[in-house]
Amino acid sequence: MTGMRGKKCKIGITTFVTILSVFSVVMQGFTVCATAEEPVPTGPDWAMDAAAAPAVVAEGAILMDVDTGVVFYEKNIHEKYYPASITKLLTCLVAAENSELTDVVKFSHEAVFGIESGSSHIGIDEGEELTMKDCYYGALLESANEVCSGIAEHVGGSVEGFAAMMNEKVKELGGNESNFVNANGLHNDNHYTSAYDMALIGQAFAKNEMLLEISGTDFYHIDATAAQPDEIDLRHHHRMLPGCQLSKARPYEYMIGGKNGFTSIARTTLVTFAKKDGHRLVCVLLKDENPHHYTDTLSLFEYGFACYENPSLKDQIDAKTKELQGKQEVSENETSEDGIVAASAGTAALGDGAGISAGGNGTEGLGLDEMDRRVDNVGKDKASGRTGEADAEKEVRYKTGKGQTGSIPVLTIVVTVVAAAAVSVCGVIFYRNYMQEMERRRRRAEIMARHRARREAG
Hints:
The chain has helices at 2-35, 87-96, 109-113, 132-141, 145-156, 159-173, 195-206, 209-215, 292-309, 311-351, 368-400, 410-457; strands at 46-47, 60-65, 71-75, 104-106, 129-131, 219-222, 232-235, 255-263, 267-276, 279-288. The protein is of the alpha+beta class. A six-stranded antiparallel β-sheet has the order 1-3-2-10-9-8, sandwiched between helices. The protein starts with a helix and ends with a helix. The relative contact order is 0.13.
């Protein structure tokens, strides 16, 4: 009898595993079919003028008005991406708020040799010195990683201390989707941001006239000194900058500054500032591919500046501007009121510290969190009691040999139910993926049709 039960158990398990294997193969095949096609440009999640909005290759993108914060275009703006060297915009912003241009940065062994071999640098040696002004040019034009580490150590005491200042600054700007662990953007799994947070950083950066001017300089020369014996020429690597001295330049007459980045994991990242007819825009692209980051940026700027010229959009832009200004005023008022309430609450807490246990039944003075916790525990205790009873019942059945329905062993029923549940789950997953693939293909067809229409119209 025991042998028969063991054999049935093995058969049931084998059947269950076979079913799962078959569905796994089917799902893998479906996934391969869904991802076999080459990626195409995709449209925005939202745009001020959806009919005229361009499709971009970058996985994350945003176009924002620098002076008002109005967003004209967004695509995956709250997704996590690695920023690479556009990190240096935040590095310079934090440093500018906590140092002087005349500060002298002395480079430590760690600052010089702690960067990845072969990464961007300007050849500064251990013990050499640069002014903070020269450091800004080195960081923003040549993307010098050792310079950024030197800035971090000078301002924050250490790279870790400076990274904490960077994260605090992002929160101050209203961002909560970033975490920075270094000052140069070299890859770290815990060093990430979002397009929206980078737009907030770019907005603040552009409002610093000194930094914006440096980021829009095509050439800068660092003179040799007793503390730094080399003559160093710096050239901006953003090819859209008017006057860019590097090959394959793509000058854009309205560009006033920016920063590019790249790592093999982050791919190409780009932040660009442009000004036309008094309007200033910041464009952020994350996980783009060369040379699409330049064509994407150009398309977004052309679209954005055209929005200002569209009478039908003027009211929409003005309304969003007022809405954002209203939110800022409310936020400032709440911050002020919170300070008063917190002070009052602190005083009350000092006077009523014994209120938690003052009630006759021990609950009158409880806070909502404590009451919720007790209620949750009661539910858990009851569930635990039911679980214990169920386990005891199973134990009795096992020892007495009971638990069969007719001539069908309980084990067979259990295996059948589990197998049916597994089939149902796989079916649901298959159906969901199928619907997602159909939606992806539909979206792709719409995008391609829009592209064809634009080409024909052009």
